Amino acid sequence: MLSLIIGQPRSGKSEYAERIVSNRAGSTVYVGTLPNFPVWRDTIRRHESRRPDSWDLLELIGNPERDTELILEALDQYQNILLDGIMVYVFQLMTVFDFDPSVLQRPVSVLVKRLASHTGNVVVVDQPSDGLRPLRAQRALCYLHRSLARRAHSLILIEDGRATPLGRHEIVSVGPPKRRCKDDRRSNIRKLLCEK
To answer: What is residue 19's predicted lDDT score, i.e. its pLDDT?
Structure first.
């Protein structure tokens, strides 16, 4: 089962995801996406301190093809997978490693399909891409979020520490809405998934 949890920074989305995965039976791997840069060290330490010792750690290396292979291997080995913080990973690819966004299309397509068909539990945690620069990084992340949302079994929106589970019928379709939606929650979801 694939769950997508999205919320603003410091909204409690990682803790929420960790609680979900902690309550599931079977082997668990935490997929780390944050680079070991000074700016992220406190966040990394906080996340490490909350993780049970029984969880394994898989750290991505900044190569989309190889990182996809590593995650696919993990899908064969673990019942539960927690993938936390794709936005920073995509931003790093676009800025530090200067990848072209088109490089991500194939790995994203393969990865999302496998994540959605995993017989165990896959929880993907991320934040919205609004305001992310360069614009090509924002577009790449939007593509990834929409791909995940299309295949997710559940979408959970975290706002101010509150989780709002949304049914499959509430996972909005890709593309602009036909009419302006007055429901604030659905408008927020559209914004988070890069829709107008």
So the answer is: 92
CA end-to-end span of the chain: 28
DSSP secondary structure code for residue 194 in this structure: T
Q: Is the pLDDT of residue 185 over 70?
A: no
Cα–Cα distance measured from residue 123 to residue 105, given in angstroms and rounded to the nearest whole number: 21
Instruction: Give the whole-angstrom CA distance, residue 16 versus residue 164.
Output: 11
CB atoms within 10 A of CB 185: 13
As a whole number of angstroms, the distance between CA 178 and CA 96 comes to 38
Listed in sequence order, the DSSP H helices in the chain are 13-22, 41-50, 64-77, 86-95, 102-117, 135-151, 184-192
Selected residue with higher pLDDT from 129 and 75:
75
Whole-angstrom distance, CA of residue 174 vs CA of residue 176: 7
